[in-house]
Design goal:
Structural class of chain A: mainly alpha
Chains: A mainly alpha (221), B mainly alpha (217), C alpha/beta (240)
Largest sheet of chain C: 6 strands, mixed
Structural class of chain C: alpha/beta
Number of helices of chain A: 9
Distance between the termini of chain A: 58 Å
Order of helices and strands of chain C: EEEHEEHEHHHEHEHEEHH
Shape of chain C: globular
Number of strands of chain A: 0
Strand content of chain A: under 5%
Number of strands of chain C: 10
Helix content of chain A: over 70%
Oligomer: heterotrimer
Number of helices of chain C: 9
């Protein structure tokens, strides 16, 4: 049928290296989610503030993040900023690109979550004497995060998968980058990348399951 | 005002890249949707147990990075001596990727048609197929359309990854120009504007349809 | 003639029909009364094959409903059924709702189907609403459309499953009037209902179901006037 002999041994021998790469992948994904979340909350506040400049800025960020490819956003971080004399390393460019993307999608998730929280919640909080910021921080935001938790989990999985785009800007320490290096040296493309695929799949599943367990524990009411 | 080395032929080059992006997207969405409908109906009819193998395979496409899928697809067609051009490989992989997401959309759409309405149709003597065709299909399409539009736009954005297999789509074309002309920001802005101009209005339309068609009270 | 012989049915551990024996001759109007969970609605969905039975037999004009070789789609053309939830097809106009099955199932031409649809819709008093979408109509109107839709198939039997229970009180009357009209025209009807007055006036026989058993069946004057079964007596006392 075909004259290709699979050399799985080579792939398995490289497993430790690939797992190291997987750790870097997770690191980038988690960092990008943390930064993305923080930015998303800020963007949400901007949009709620009623200030036209801030609101416009936030909307622009969200719409660009959601209507252009993630790879484009990474390219912008890596190549585009060159115009301003800023030269980001592949790692940083990847992180900035994914964080930018995360912030946009998460801000939109938050917007949807906020719509599901009745206006009466804020009114009750204000009636108790809280300032708008307090009302948001103690009453609205917790509920918003709760509702947005599931979409945010999906975004986390996306972030993990998006890190693979780093290879296009020269990233070689994350899982995809390591795999690509191994591939370039041995040309066992299928075996190495199949193993990488399995690792990505396992990570994605673990994150999803962990999130579900966490949600079941935390959001019990 | 603008001091650019960008020539008209460069713009044509970019336009060709854009054409490639749109072509790959169109083919993949078309094939992926057809497959998605078949798999979606299958998954719905078979129920969770019997459709588990199918679900598992489709889930793979959603849990492995698209880039890896493209590399694996290319490696596989080389191993099996299929002799596919990068364009073919890209479309096959992207179609399966689209189908994986479309299956869920279709399944959700079918599930949104009330059982009681379908019973009424069957009670009038309609066959399963007639029920599907005249009752389920129109109603499910209505429910699924906003999500499907979102999926189509997502595939268009993800199509940028086919550059890894050597296809000169829009982003790669932009990158080539950047390397030659050293005007990264300007060229990338044009590139980004293209994606934005297509995606933004269509996304808005999808949002509008979702609001308009959402079941009120 | 509909013959129900020793029918038993369970949903999981719960037995909802415990050996029902009943024969409904052509032209009869039979109403079934009883509390919730007594099995009345389940019986109707068994008659047209939407639900399977565990044992016993249901025969419609000699065809056994749950036999392996039975063409259910064909059988259902004879059995019109109207449910509690109107189940209008929301993406079609009232006229299209009624025309669909005659065209696709009976193979009628558009002209034939339209003529029949207009006739039935006028019959139930919806002659003015042909181009309207069902969701824009009241519950009572949607229910009458559902009746017209079933009638357009020219069924031999009509089954009504608590067709007024989901309606606002002021809309109940118009639907009951339609049922009364059908009864007076000689249609064979099985009505599951809570409307005691209606049952009394319209039925040839009334059956009382209690916990999956048909406890009593007799003409209305007898059933309502001199109930024998103790559960029936309790039921009638509670609903008066």
């Amino acid at each position: 049928m075909f004259s290709y002999t699979f050399h799985w041994n080579q792939a398995f021998k490289a497993l430790p290296q690939m797992l190291d790469g997987a750790l870097v992948t997770l690191q980038i994904a988690i960092l990008s989610m943390v930064i993305g979340m923080a930015c998303a909350i800020a963007l949400t506040l901007f949009r709620l503030s009623g200030n036209r400049v801030l609101g416009g800025f936030a909307t622009a960020w969200v719409e660009v993040a959601r209507n252009t490819p993630a790879l484009f956003q990474i390219y912008m971080a890596h190549f585009g900023l060159g115009n301003f004399g800023i030269h980001l390393s592949p790692y940083t460019a990847l992180l900035v690109g994914i964080a930018f993307n995360n912030a946009g999608y998460l801000a939109e998730n938050f917007r949807g979550a906020l719509k599901a929280i009745p206006e009466t919640q804020t009114r009750s909080a204000r009636s108790l004497g809280m300032t708008p910021m307090q009302a948001f921080r103690y009453i609205v935001m917790p509920q918003m995060l709760r509702i947005a938790f599931l979409p945010a989990t999906n975004q986390m999985v996306w972030a993990i998968l998006m890190t693979s785009l780093g290879v296009t800007v020269g990233m070689n320490t994350d899982l995809a980058g390591v795999t690509q290096e191994l591939n370039a040296r041995s040309f066992r493309t299928f075996e190495f990348f199949a193993l990488a695929a399995v690792i990505y799949y396992v990570i994605a599943k673990i994150v999803t399951m962990a999130a579900r367990l966490f949600a079941a524990r935390m959001f019990r009411y | 005002m603008f001091n650019t080395a960008l020539t008209w032929s460069d713009l044509v080059f970019l336009a060709q890249g854009a054409g490639m992006t749109l072509t790959v997207t169109a083919v993949s969405v078309a094939a992926g949707t057809v497959l998605g409908i078949i798999f979606g109906v299958l998954r719905f009819q078979l129920g969770p147990y019997w459709s588990a193998p199918l679900t598992f395979i489709l889930d793979l496409f959603r849990s492995v990075p698209l880039l890896i899928q493209l590399v694996l697809g290319n490696a596989a067609q080389s191993i099996f001596k299929l002799g596919w051009a990068p364009f073919t490989t890209s479309c096959v992989v992207l179609s399966l990727y689209t189908a994986a997401y479309c299956t869920e959309i279709v399944r959700g759409g079918i599930g949104a048609v009330p059982v009681t309405t379908r019973r009424a149709a069957r009670s009038l003597g309609m066959t399963w197929w007639q029920d599907m065709r005249y009752i389920v299909f129109p109603l499910a399409t209505r429910v699924s359309l906003p999500s499907w539009i979102g999926l189509t736009l997502g595939v268009m954005k993800d199509s940028a990854l086919v550059l890894w297999l050597g296809l000169i789509e829009l982003l790669r074309a932009s990158q080539i120009l950047v390397t030659r002309l050293q005007e990264p920001l300007f060229i990338l802005l044009i590139c980004g504007a293209f994606y934005f101009i297509i995606s933004f209005p269509v996304a808005r339309l999808g949002g509008y349809l979702e609001k308009r068609w959402s079941p009120n009270d | 003639m509909i013959e129900i012989e020793n029918v038993r049915k369970s949903f999981g551990p719960l037995e909802v029909l415990k050996g029902i024996n009943l024969t409904v001759p052509k032209g009869e109007v039979l109403t079934i009364i009883g509390g919730s969970g007594s099995g009345k609605s389940t019986l109707l969905t068994c008659i047209n094959g939407l639900e399977p039975i565990d044992s016993g037999r249901i025969t419609v004009d000699g065809t056994e409903v749950h036999a392996k070789g039975t063409d259910l789609n064909k059988l259902r053309r004879k059995l019109g059924i109207v449910f509690q939830q109107f189940n209008a097809f929301p993406h079609l106009t009232v006229l299209e709702n009624v025309m669909l099955a005659p065209m696709k199932v009976l193979g009628q031409s558009k002209a034939e189907a339209e003529a029949m649809a207009v006739k039935q819709l006028s019959h139930v008093g919806l002659g003015e609403k042909l181009g309207v979408y069902p969701t824009r109509m009241s519950g009572g109107q949607q229910q009458r459309m559902a009746i017209a839709r079933a009638l357009a198939m020219s069924p031999s039997y009509m089954l009504f499953d608590e067709v007024t229970s989901a309606l606002d009180p002021q809309l109940v009357g118009e639907v009951l009037d339609t049922l009364r009209m059908l009864a007076s025209e000689g249609m064979t009807m099985i009505c599951v209902t809570h409307e005691m007055k209606f049952a009394r006036e319209v039925s040839d026989r009334v059956a009382f179901f209690h916990k999956g058993v048909m406890a009593e069946i007799s003409p209305p004057e007898q059933l309502f006037g001199a109930p024998k079964d103790p559960e029936l007596q309790k039921f009638l006392a509670a609903t008066h």
